[in-house]
Amino acid sequence: MSVTSTRPTIRLTGRVASIEVSPTLAVLNRAQELIGSGVDIVDFGPGEPDFRTPALVSEAGKQAIDQGFTKYTNASGTKALRDAIASRYATRYGVKLTTENVIAGNGGKQELFNLMLALVDEGDEVIIPSPYWVSFPDQVAFAGGKPVFAKTSVDNQFRPTLADIEAVATEKTRGLIINSPCNPTGAVIAESELRRIVEWCASRDVFLIFDETYEFFVYGGAKHASAMKWFDQYPETIIAVNSMSKTYAMTGWRLGYAIAHPELIAALGKIQSHSTSNPSSIAQAAALAALRGDDSEVRKMYDAYCERRAWLVPAVNAIDGFCCADPDGAFYIFPEIGEFFGKAGIVDSQTFATFLLEKARVAVVPGSAFGADEFIRISYATSLDRLKEGVRRIEEALSTL
Ligand SMILES: Cc1ncc(COP(=O)(O)O)c(C=O)c1O
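Above: query sequence and pyridoxal-5'-phosphate SMILES. Below: predicted holo structure tokens.
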């Protein structure tokens, strides 16, 4: 055997090469750098509640440790937790579920990832309404599929319609992902449109992943509609993904779940059993307490978001050059900022965000991260005082242009 003199290399798979760490994270990394060096940045970036995990939930986590509930559990989650999730859905959406319809994992993100691995074959197309949450396209691509974007209209407040979806469907369409309320736009799909989409998916044998991570955060006259309402009728088509992260301010605990047909749940369980095994036993105990609790803390967070949103939307619309739809849900607004392109070196949402960071000391996420380059995402998971200070700084910096 001949010996080569070349150095070994890091040889990555095509799979990994097909996905990216979002380049737009550069703005947020720079914000962290500035904060670290003592600069006062108003941070509108976070995709997580600024509230503490409710005491009752944290207490259950502590008790789990004290009582030695610190060992492996069933890889798909404890029966108690899966049943509590099933029963929450039965109460909320009138759907009949058993333990076998539910899997708990390390965040909704893990279940979404595993769903792609279980459902998407090489070359399969998965339709994603755009603007979209950052991880959807890369998860589809990682599984070997092709993300296909269905552009939603700002005039329809970014709510996806069946017409948007049909316009990009082909014979290779294997699945559809609907996220309502939507991160980043806050769009909430109406029940009548969702029903039409569910029926379309079932008639074409297209799976529907319905991500309702922000289900509790819906405002004004809008109402959250869940695809799970029709699960009894279309159990092979509908898959719900949900999370404890946003509802209970539990982002760091890493606990999310999927609800689907038992055969699909078993497939997800198989993947999980060979990758992470169970989500943390401690987080599971905390999640169980949250689901069995009375949600009074969730209502307090909800009231705070209502108050912030009521102040923020008109305040942002009053900034010259900003145009913002009234988002029905989540805790983000998604204003259009294309007016500023061509000024002071601003050519896209990334350079706009950089301008705000350097000149206004305000961090926002560029819309390009979500497939919409004329927009930025502002999170109002931050106090009203900081929102007011941030908007004041933005107005001041833009007035110099
Ligand atoms: C739309 C959406 N889905 C899923 C997730 C995943 O949340 P987690 O993995 O914390 O449960 C997030 C988190 O930002 C999200 O915004």
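The radius of gyration is 22 Å.
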